[in-house]
Amino acid sequence: MSLKKLIAGGVLTIGLIAGIPHCDRDVYTGTVIEKVSRVKGDNSKYLVTTELEESGATRTFEVADSPLELKFSSSDRWAEIKKGHTYEFSTFGWRIPFLSSYENIVGFDEVAQDTTYAPRE
Hints:
This protein has a single domain, classed as CATH 2.40.50.140. Helix content is 20%, strand content 38%. It is elongated. The chain starts with a helix and ends in an 11-residue tail after the last strand.
């Protein structure tokens, strides 16, 4: 096998591994119940834990830079998400627990809260 074919195969493999998670996209609506920033050396991981509106299940997402999405301001985007607020999150990727991998939030919009009067019980 020639060196050119070996290099081309390696580049193709790396491209597939990096690109395939971008094909799995989902949209969730949930209320933020926790935000955590984990710093390890020069790297930070920004996590957002939500309670999903549809099922009441708890799900954690990551806010990470993604060159394929042209998304480079993850720390600023993470700071915009407020605890106790409800958002519609657009994500890609998968939750893989043993790799500490989370779905990545690529976009979000705050959901208007119902402000109608409700009497106290």
